[in-house]
Design a protein that fits this description.
heterodimer, A: mainly beta, SH3 type barrels, Porin, 5-stranded antiparallel β-sheet, 1 helix, elongated, B: alpha+beta, 2 domains, 3 helices, about 20% helix
């Protein structure tokens, strides 16, 4: 009976893992395909046409460096044509017709008109705009069954609600070190909330390396199932805090499986 | 006979009417095609009506850098450290930074004084660390070197965690630091900073929490 149960669990686990892999891989492929076509059609040495816009507001302040506190040393007025040079965080470097260079706020570009008579299309830096069709990179620090853990996660968000991620962790404990690699699917039921809860399931591998000085034991590798609950807390623009509790279920080769509680806190950035 | 003439006339007039109609339709078509005419050339000049999107504009939010300096590992001497850093500027205030550095430690005073005792092998003396930290530009400013030159600067705080590999073991390591950024241009930055790495080890038999200050000078470019 237990043998049958074991086989069932193993099959389920394998199916789940393959499913997640296929899901992740196809999404990766489709995104790579599109960019590959762009890559080959690009002429890397061609100079880009200057991006010129016309001011469509009474005036726009021009700062002398990309920061809110830097002095405003110039203003560009309605009807004036300016060239957009580059962007750094929430600031855009511009050049006026007379050759004066300075920085305007990113959102002020919406007060200009492009050559087609329409304001340039710049995504709003509100939370919701960063949620769909985005890559996500994060790091977290926490506690893995008494060991201190360092985590990195790379995710892709299909929709506002659904994302998949690869998790890597290095846990350093008093008696043993361990490493985790896992794939997970997360669901966020209320993505527009400032503190938005999520749930997730994952599967992966746990590699345990006991301290050689203390315990005479060999490295071992076990399968791992994860269930997690947590929240994304929006700080600003593409920057989120993430707090998470993970219940790890380690399928050991010993008689009993092991349950591990994992707590972590970190930050995630969306691209 | 009369009916035949009538038929011919009717056919001829029908044909005539049809040609006239089709000609007028053709002419109207032609007119529609060329309705720009001389005026059209003036109204729609031959330039690209470009729609500007965010992706058209080059953004410089990533930064990659090299650094070197001194790392003092408690009990194991002060030594050269060299590393690479990779940062992403999230907003004008916050940045995330990943660091990887390596150093080689010295013998402890005890090993030197006692003569033959060796606590660690040569390979075990190599130290490497990695971490991910969050930085905050606390005091953005500018320096004015002459009438003509001004440079952007920033005093920043940074904190994070990661791992240190030393004596064949990993140690979870917290880091805390502060530094001074000097932007030579928009895309080239010099960085002078201090970090403190703290972790706990049991190399001497008992658990000992150690603090390892690092002073470093780096250069990085934005892309």
């Amino acid at each position: 009976m237990t043998r049958l149960l074991k086989i069932t669990i193993a099959t389920f686990k394998r199916g789940l893992r393959i499913g997640i892999c296929v899901l992740g891989f196809t999404s990766l492929l489709s995104s790579v395909n599109a960019s590959a076509a762009d890559f080959w059609s690009l002429n890397w040495f061609e100079k880009d046409a200057p991006i010129e816009v016309t001011v469509n507001d009474a005036f726009i302040n021009v700062h002398n460096a990309p920061g809110r506190g830097y002095p405003i040393f110039h203003v560009v007025e309605r009807g004036e044509t300016i060239t957009l040079l580059k962007m750094h965080t929430d600031w855009i470097k511009i050049k006026t017709a007379r050759g004066i260079e300075g920085w305007i706020k990113r959102k002020d570009v919406l007060l200009t008109l492009g050559p087609d008579g329409v304001a340039p299309e710049f995504a709003d830096t509100k939370q919701a705009d960063y949620l769909a069709d985005r890559f996500e990179l994060g790091t977290a620090f926490g506690d893995f069954d008494g060991a201190q853990s360092f985590n990195v996660n790379l995710g892709y968000r299909f929709t506002k609600n659904l994302s998949t991620e690869i998790r890597l962790a290095q846990n350093t404990g008093q008696y043993s070190d361990s490493q985790i690699i896992a794939l997970a699917i997360l669901h966020q039921p209320f993505p527009d909330l400032r503190a938005s809860p999520f749930i997730g399931i994952g599967a992966g591998k746990l590699k345990t390396m006991p301290s050689t000085t203390l315990v005479q034991s060999e490295d071992r590798e076990d399968q791992l199932l994860q269930a997690s609950i947590g929240a994304y807390i929006h700080i600003t623009g593409r920057f989120f805090l993430r707090a998470e509790y993970v219940n790890d279920y380690v399928l050991t080769s010993r008689n009993t499986n092991q349950e591990v509680n994992e707590w972590k806190l970190g930050f995630n950035i969306f691209f | 006979m009369e009916t035949r003439v009538q038929h011919i006339l009717l056919a001829a007039s029908l044909l005539g009417a049809l040609t006239c109609f089709s000609a007028s339709v053709c002419a109207a078509d032609e007119k529609e095609k060329n309705n720009d005419g001389e005026l059209g050339k003036i109204i729609t000049p031959d330039i690209e009506r470009r729609h500007i999107k965010e992706a058209d504009l080059d953004s410089e939010d990533f930064e990659v850098g090299l650094y070197t300096g001194m790392l003092n590992v408690e009990d194991f001497g002060s030594n050269m450290v060299a590393g690479v850093s990779f940062s992403y500027h999230i907003t004008e205030d916050f940045f995330a930074q990943a660091n990887y550095g390596t150093s080689e430690t010295e013998k402890t005073s005890y090993e030197l004084l006692s003569g033959g005792v060796e606590l660690l092998t040569k390979e075990q003396r190599d130290l490497s660390y990695y971490n991910i930290s969050l930085g905050y530009d606390l005091l953005p400013g500018q320096v004015y070197l002459s009438e003509k030159w001004h440079f952007n600067t920033s005093v920043y705080l940074v904190a994070g965690a990661g791992n240190t590999r030393f004596a064949d073991k990993n140690y979870f390591t917290y880091n805390l630091g502060a530094g001074f950024k000097f932007y030579a241009t928009d895309w080239l930055m010099l960085d002078l900073s201090m970090r403190n790495y703290s972790f706990e080890h049991e190399l001497f038999g008992i658990a000992k929490k150690i603090n390892n200050p690092e002073s470093r000078l780096g250069i990085s470019i934005f892309f």
